[in-house]
């Protein structure tokens, strides 16, 4: 997982955000290339925009994105504007989209909420954050955004009481909980990019509020605490139905922290007492958790967690199944540089008093299949789009490339798969490499794939990999 993906840089007003991950492919777009920053996007032919409008009306999120960004002369429908918003996957994208949502103030408010970074020092008084219980937080307007900025400032401002900080945390949790509800997302479907963006914020603020409140309760916040904890469970289940490869930094961290909070003592009992049907037992099993941690780059955390559970009483897993699982994770992901660390951690575990048993009393959980398309399927779909775009001209070629980027931009695993199979120097390989470069995927495994696709010959590949590893500071541990 790349922490650079959390702040994906986008040129505002320069065509669909997706095209900005194509610095190495823009020249190949020919006459269909987008305008430089600050210049208006060229108008497309009436037929092209009519086709996009029809596709957006039929429910195509990709067509809605392209309609909103490439047909400024067309007044997009509220449904198309909503579909375009759902495809905004970063604060920068949300900020760029907000002016285009002027015809739908409720959607513009959601975009502006997601675009918030932090208030300027001293610009707002954090002690004046609105009351979290009585404040009106929907729709999101200037007053709500001002309250959010004050509440964010209250998290770190000096001189505030515990009650003030807890109330500000409660306000942030409530605003983001209701913002997610305003999206009207189906409860049993994976989250779209904008849903993931808001979910990461809600998990962060919601978990922080629940932990702060439970440590020292504040009068009047019990109903809000209960509602937030219930929603944490529902949002976490939705997050676990969503591919994790393209998570930004906040969501990557909060997937684990919120999961551990929900698995903590007393949470399941409280949820059951409030009638929540899905409790922490419905979360993905431990092998899936370890896979995700490794995919996000938290390899040492995965080792520590698994080895701790190897000896956890009263029902330890034992070292043998844990070691087998961890070795398989390292092998499958080309993470051999962590083998020495695993060996050291195993030795340290065996020196504990009492030492974990080799064979435990609890059976190792079964890994369940992920609920999203695997990297190979996504790579195949993107490769087909590239082939179609390569055979097209002008606007059709440009839009075909944009659709391929939309398919790949939150799936670096699919980008690596496409690099492995695509013809070196071909359009698909260049597009996949450009997306990975923009995502700043800095794992050693990713560098091996990208350098192998860049040059032919073993000696050149090894040299390129060594130089890339040195420049990225990724010497094997």
List the SSEs and their pairings.
Elements: H1 46-57, H2 61-70, H3 78-86, H4 91-97, H5 105-115, H6 142-154, H7 162-182, H8 193-215, H9 222-240, H10 249-262, H11 267-273, H12 286-295, H13 299-311, H14 319-332, H15 339-350, H16 375-390, H17 394-408, H18 412-421, H19 427-439, H20 444-454, H21 458-472
Helix pairs in contact: 1-2, 2-3, 4-5, 6-7, 7-8, 7-9, 8-9, 8-10, 9-10, 12-13, 12-14, 13-14, 13-15, 16-17, 16-18, 18-19, 20-21
What does this structure look like?
This protein has 21 helices and no strands. The protein is mainly α and 477 residues long. The longest helix is centred in the middle third of the chain and has 23 residues, at 193-215. The protein is globular.
Provide the succession of SSEs: HHHHHHHHHHHHHHHHHHHHH
The averaged pLDDT comes out at 84
What structural class results from the helix and strand content? mainly alpha
Strand residue content: under 5%
Q: How is the biggest beta sheet arranged?
A: none
The number of distinct β-strands equals 0
Shape: globular
Amino- and carboxy-terminal Cα gap: 18 Å
Residue ranges: pLDDT <50 for 5 or more in a row?
1-16, 21-46
Whole-angstrom Rg? 24 Å
> Percent helix among the residues?
55-70%
Count of helix runs: 21
């Amino acid at each position: 997982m790349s922490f650079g993906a959390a702040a994906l840089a986008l040129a505002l007003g320069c065509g669909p955000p997706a095209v900005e991950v194509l610095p190495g492919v823009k020249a190949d777009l020919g006459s269909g290339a987008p305008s430089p920053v600050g210049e208006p996007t060229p108008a497309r032919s009436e037929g092209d925009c009519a086709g996009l409008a029809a596709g957006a009306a039929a429910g195509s999120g990709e067509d809605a994105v392209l309609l909103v960004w490439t047909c400024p002369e067309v007044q997009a429908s509220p449904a198309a504007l909503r579909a375009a918003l759902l495809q905004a996957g970063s604060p920068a994208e949300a900020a760029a989209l907000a002016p285009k949502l002027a015809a739908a103030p409720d959607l513009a408010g959601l975009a502006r909420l997601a675009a918030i970074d932090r208030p300027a020092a001293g610009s707002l008084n954090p002690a004046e954050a609105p009351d979290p219980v009585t404040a009106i937080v929907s729709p999101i307007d200037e007053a709500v955004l001002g309250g959010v900025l004050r509440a964010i400032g209250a998290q770190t401002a000096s001189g505030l009481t515990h009650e003030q900080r807890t109330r500000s945390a409660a306000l942030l949790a409530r605003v983001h909980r209701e913002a997610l509800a305003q999206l009207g997302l189906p409860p049993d479907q994976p989250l779209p990019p904008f849903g993931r963006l808001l979910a990461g914020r809600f998990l962060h603020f919601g978990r922080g509020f629940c932990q702060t409140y439970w440590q020292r309760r504040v009068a009047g916040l019990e109903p809000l605490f209960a509602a937030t904890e219930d929603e944490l469970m529902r949002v976490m289940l939705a997050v676990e139905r969503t591919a994790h490869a393209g998570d930004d930094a906040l969501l990557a961290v909060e997937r684990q922290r919120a999961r551990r909070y929900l698995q903590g003592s007393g949470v399941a009992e409280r949820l059951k007492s409030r009638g929540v049907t899905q409790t922490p037992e419905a979360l993905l099993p431990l092998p899936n958790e370890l896979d995700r941690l490794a995919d996000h780059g938290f390899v040492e955390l995965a080792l520590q967690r698994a080895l701790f559970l190897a000896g956890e009483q009263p029902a330890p897993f034992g070292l043998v199944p844990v070691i087998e699982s961890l070795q398989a994770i390292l092998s499958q992901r080309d993470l051999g540089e962590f083998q020495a660390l695993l060996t050291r951690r195993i030795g340290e575990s065996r020196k504990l008093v009492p030492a974990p048993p080799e064979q435990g009393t609890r059976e190792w959980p079964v890994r369940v299949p992920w609920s999203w398309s695997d990297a190979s399927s996504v790579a195949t779909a993107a490769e087909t789009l590239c082939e179609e775009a390569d055979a097209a001209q002008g606007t059709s070629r440009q839009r075909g490339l944009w659709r391929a980027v939309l398919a790949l931009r939150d799936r670096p695993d699919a980008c690596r798969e496409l690099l492995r199979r695509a013809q070196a120097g071909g359009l698909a390989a260049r597009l996949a490499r450009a997306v990975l470069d923009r995502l700043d995927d800095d794992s050693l495994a990713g560098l091996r794939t990208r350098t192998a696709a860049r040059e032919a010959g073993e000696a050149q590949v090894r040299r390129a990999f060594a130089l890339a590893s040195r420049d990225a500071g990724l010497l094997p541990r």
